[in-house]
Amino acid sequence: MIESFVASGHAADLVLAIMALEAIILSVYLRRKGLSRSIPGFMAALLAGAALVLALRAALAGGDLGVIALCLGASFIAHLAEIALKIVHVRANPKHGETS
Fold it and tell me: What is the pTM of this model?
């Protein structure tokens, strides 16, 4: 039973649904705490992960290799965006992350 759940790609669908819920909860929380500037970085990380899960789903469901490659490429781009946002944040806040 679990094998068919995973092999059909429904396990990946469940993971994507949880990630979407995580994105909503995290956005609301960060806005309420006045940390809205952190949202793009978190969303880039979630998007990178979601694209990897989509690639997994396509592979499990016997999807086209082009679709799998497109998902992996999207994940890489989202990962680069996350890194760029972190670099911008560190440059804007040079003391952030330093230890005493």
Answer: 0.84
